[in-house]
């Protein structure tokens, strides 16, 4: 037997009629609806004749139970105040506009259905086998899937409520979340989803069906009813704009929007790397939801490590670079591909670092290419700016290129303590050379117990060289790589800054060395940047939801 099963029509008669027509065209002998007739769209009453005329067999969801009883809220199971506030808007509309006859009919529906079909025990529920409004997410750990399967013991379990379709085998049980008809699945598609099951001779196969329907008409009906545009936008774009906090990290990372704007603390300013604030593009406009990427919590700056070997062996290098380090050089063709990909993925800044980037044989050509595409910062110790590798550097003065170097003391003694004998003098020569080339560098000082007292003198020295005051910043010493002291930094204590090396993708440039920071490695070489953004988003919310806090920024750029 072939059956078709839908979830959550959510006041969307256009999708419900399309479900009936499509399921019949596919040869479905019986049609089922797993509840939540209201909940997003404007016209719940229009569902009733479609359900009855097509003989759709229904169970009640939490929404239907609440409407039938005249409850004050939908009982959806949200815990976040903002999620509940948006849910309340639609519930109040649904309660006010649903006829009492239809509401009474909802009150006659069972909250689950179980029968033998094709030799199999099939159990249909709304939320899960545990509770009516349980969110049975695909990303739940295996033991929590088993708990729900074992609570039923059926051969096939069909559910909805979460709004996101999936299917999986749990031991001998086939579990299917059939999705919902009332709104898209937060996948950027305007189609909605339902499931077709073929059950014969003790075997079951399920297919998830994307369903096209007249979404323009649904959007018009919602506007005509005065529902907020934030709801209509989901119908028109396929991306959820409400009820985000209920999503687990894996599911949330797949959407376009991840945070309510109100989640951003008023005292938390856009990412300031010491050179002045920029406005994250995620915060533009007035939409109440924003993506994580491009917000203060995930700056749209991409770090590219050209290599890891260095002419210096600084004793606090966060990525363990030195003359003896394996070069792990990024090929020029790979670099250019990454720059193109960064533009496509919405990055707005590039930071080029190492090791010492000027040990890369093609560094000037790479900086030229990067600076032609995006504002680019090149990190260097400024000691190798002469000779073959640096030929043509002066011609880059017209590009969107900033050179940044480090000076850790006003005297050679203090600077050279950590960076090696003679490095202070050669760095100053490099700074002067950059100024002469028309590329006045930004200069950062890594603060230690040895140089704190010299910070004013370093600022005065740079002023004497002709650098503006805003070209100097102080950054903290971080405990990574060679450094066994300094500020602790990890996924649970820092905002992410996606970083690419020859070894793949990393959470933060400070954790880009796989040997000393394996915990910050995200994905292997060749992983697309868009995938990296999703991985970062998932890890961000996994860390955040552990204790409910949001991490603070630690910027390697300063």
UniProtKB/TrEMBL annotation:
<feature type="domain" description="Radical SAM core">
    <location>
        <begin position="295"/>
        <end position="519"/>
    </location>
</feature>
<dbReference type="InterPro" id="IPR050377">
    <property type="entry name" value="Radical_SAM_PqqE_MftC-like"/>
</dbReference>
<comment type="similarity">
    <text>Belongs to the metallophosphoesterase superfamily. YfcE family.</text>
</comment>
<protein>
    <submittedName>
        <fullName>Radical SAM protein</fullName>
    </submittedName>
</protein>
<keyword id="KW-0408">Iron</keyword>
<dbReference type="Pfam" id="PF12850">
    <property type="entry name" value="Metallophos_2"/>
</dbReference>
<dbReference type="InterPro" id="IPR007197">
    <property type="entry name" value="rSAM"/>
</dbReference>
<keyword id="KW-0949">S-adenosyl-L-methionine</keyword>
<dbReference type="InterPro" id="IPR024654">
    <property type="entry name" value="Calcineurin-like_PHP_lpxH"/>
</dbReference>
<keyword id="KW-0411">Iron-sulfur</keyword>
<dbReference type="InterPro" id="IPR029052">
    <property type="entry name" value="Metallo-depent_PP-like"/>
</dbReference>
<keyword id="KW-0479">Metal-binding</keyword>
<dbReference type="InterPro" id="IPR058240">
    <property type="entry name" value="rSAM_sf"/>
</dbReference>
<dbReference type="InterPro" id="IPR013785">
    <property type="entry name" value="Aldolase_TIM"/>
</dbReference>
<dbReference type="Pfam" id="PF04055">
    <property type="entry name" value="Radical_SAM"/>
</dbReference>
């Amino acid at each position: 037997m072939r059956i078709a099963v839908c979830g959550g029509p959510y006041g969307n008669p256009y999708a419900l009629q399309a479900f009936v027509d499509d399921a019949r065209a596919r040869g479905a002998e019986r049609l089922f609806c797993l509840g939540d007739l209201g909940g997003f769209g404007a016209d719940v009453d229009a569902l009733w004749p479609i359900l009855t005329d097509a003989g759709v067999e229904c169970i009640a969801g939490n929404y239907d139970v609440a409407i039938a009883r005249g409850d004050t809220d939908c009982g959806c199971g949200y815990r976040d105040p903002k999620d509940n506030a948006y849910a309340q808007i639609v519930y109040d509309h649904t309660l006010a506009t649903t006829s009492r006859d239809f509401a009474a009919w909802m009150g006659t529906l069972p909250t689950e259905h179980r029968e033998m079909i094709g030799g199999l025990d099939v159990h249909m529920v709304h939320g899960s086998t545990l509770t009516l409004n349980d969110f049975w997410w695909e990303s739940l750990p295996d033991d929590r899937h088993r708990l729900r399967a074992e609570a039923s013991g059926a051969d096939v379990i069909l559910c909805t409520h979460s709004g996101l379709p999936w299917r999986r085998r749990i031991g001998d049980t086939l579990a299917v979340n059939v999705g919902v008809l009332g709104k898209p699945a937060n996948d950027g598609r305007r189609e909605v989803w339902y499931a077709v099951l073929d059950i014969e001779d003790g075997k079951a196969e399920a297919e998830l069906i994307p369903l096209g329907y007249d979404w323009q008409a649904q959007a018009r009906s919602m506007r005509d009813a005065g529902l907020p545009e934030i709801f209509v936008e989901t119908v028109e774009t396929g991306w959820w704009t409400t009820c985000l906090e209920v999503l687990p990290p894996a599911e949330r990372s797949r959407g376009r929007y991840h945070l309510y704007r109100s989640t951003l603390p008023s005292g938390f300013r856009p990412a300031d790397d010491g050179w002045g604030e920029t406005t994250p593009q995620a915060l533009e406009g007035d939409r109440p939801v924003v993506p994580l990427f491009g917000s203060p919590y995930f700056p749209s700056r991409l770090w590219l490590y050209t290599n890891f070997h260095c002419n210096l062996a600084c004793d606090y290098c966060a990525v363990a670079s030195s003359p003896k380090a394996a070069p792990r050089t990024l090929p020029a063709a790979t670099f250019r591909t990454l720059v193109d990909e960064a533009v496509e993925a919405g990055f707005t800044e590039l930071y080029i670092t190492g090791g010492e980037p000027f040990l890369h044989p093609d560094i000037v050509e790479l900086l030229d290419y990067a600076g032609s595409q995006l504002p680019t910062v090149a990190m260097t110790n400024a000691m190798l700016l002469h000779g073959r590798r640096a030929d043509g550097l002066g011609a880059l003065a017209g590009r969107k290129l900033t050179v940044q170097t480090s000076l850790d003391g006003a005297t050679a003694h203090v600077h050279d303590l950590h960076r090696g004998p003679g490095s202070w003098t050669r760095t100053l020569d490099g700074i002067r050379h950059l100024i002469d080339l028309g590329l006045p560098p930004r200069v950062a000082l890594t603060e230690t117990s040895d140089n704190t007292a010299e910070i004013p003198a370093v600022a005065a020295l740079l002023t004497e060289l002709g650098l503006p005051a805003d070209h100097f910043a102080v950054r903290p010493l971080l405990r990574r790589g060679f450094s066994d002291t300094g500020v602790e930094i990890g996924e649970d204590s820092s905002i992410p800054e996606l970083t690419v090396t020859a070894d793949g993708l990393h959470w933060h440039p400070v954790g880009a060395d796989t040997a000393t920071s394996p915990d910050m490695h995200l994905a292997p070489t060749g992983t697309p940047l868009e995938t990296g953004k999703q991985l970062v988003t998932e890890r961000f919310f996994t860390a955040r939801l552990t204790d409910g806090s949001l991490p603070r920024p630690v910027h390697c750029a300063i």
